[in-house]
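Customer escalation, tier 2.

The customer says the design service returned an amino acid string that "doesn't look like it belongs to this structure." They asked us to rerun it and document both sides in this ticket. The original structure tokens are below, unchanged.
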């Protein structure tokens, strides 16, 4: 039966791991994956500043390293989720955007990004210009989601609301009708459709 690891033993093990990673960095010529492991090590120690430094160094090297991208995306997604929960929508958008660039075509990641953009756009804490820009970027992301997954209900509904918010009513009614064909028992969508049709006619 293994004995529980003491705090001193754990600290020593982390020190040895750091020395091994420093040696790996010397031998692998500034490897991004080494920086990622340094990020995890400093995070395990609770050293937030150092962990962020190494995470940023890893991110700088991620675009050309497929293995590293796979490691970073879950970290960025979790950071984005926590940022949104803490109402730090800019940081959430930044983390989801980076994750989406590292894993293009991931519809679930793009849905997370679109949701964060919409939360930023609907927040009164930001300027009207920034909110408008966020609506338009959310629309672009939602159009991409619609191309990849045409029957994604949330994308259809959110894209319709974005078009209405930016006063581009063309196609918003059709989007809502497609959404309601998938979720016919959504009263809010029926109300929005009625309002949109009356606005467009006027």
């Amino acid at each position: 039966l293994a004995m529980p690891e003491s705090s001193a033993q754990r600290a020593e093990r982390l020190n040895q791991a750091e020395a091994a990673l420093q040696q790996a960095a010397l031998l692998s010529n500034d490897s991004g994956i080494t920086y990622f492991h340094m990020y995890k090590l400093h995070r395990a120690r609770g050293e937030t500043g150092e962990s962020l430094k190494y995470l940023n160094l890893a991110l700088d090297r991620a675009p050309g390293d497929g293995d590293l991208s796979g490691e970073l995306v879950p970290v960025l997604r979790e950071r984005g989720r926590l940022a949104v929960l803490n109402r730090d929508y800019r940081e959430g958008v930044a983390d989801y955007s980076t994750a989406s660039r590292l894993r293009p075509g991931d519809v679930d990641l793009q849905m997370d990004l679109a949701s964060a953009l919409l939360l930023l756009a609907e927040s009164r804490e930001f300027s009207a210009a920034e909110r408008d820009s966020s609506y338009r970027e959310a629309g672009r992301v939602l159009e991409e989601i619609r191309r990849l997954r045409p029957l994604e209900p949330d994308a259809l509904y959110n894209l319709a609301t974005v078009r209405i918010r930016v006063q581009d009513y063309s196609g918003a009614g059709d989007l809502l009708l497609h959404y309601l064909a998938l979720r016919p028992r959504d009263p809010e969508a029926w109300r929005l459709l009625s309002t949109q049709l009356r606005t467009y006619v006027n």
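Tier 2 assessment: The sequence is consistent with the input. The longest helix spans residues 7-27. The radius of gyration is 22 Å. Sent an explanation to the customer and offered a walkthrough call.
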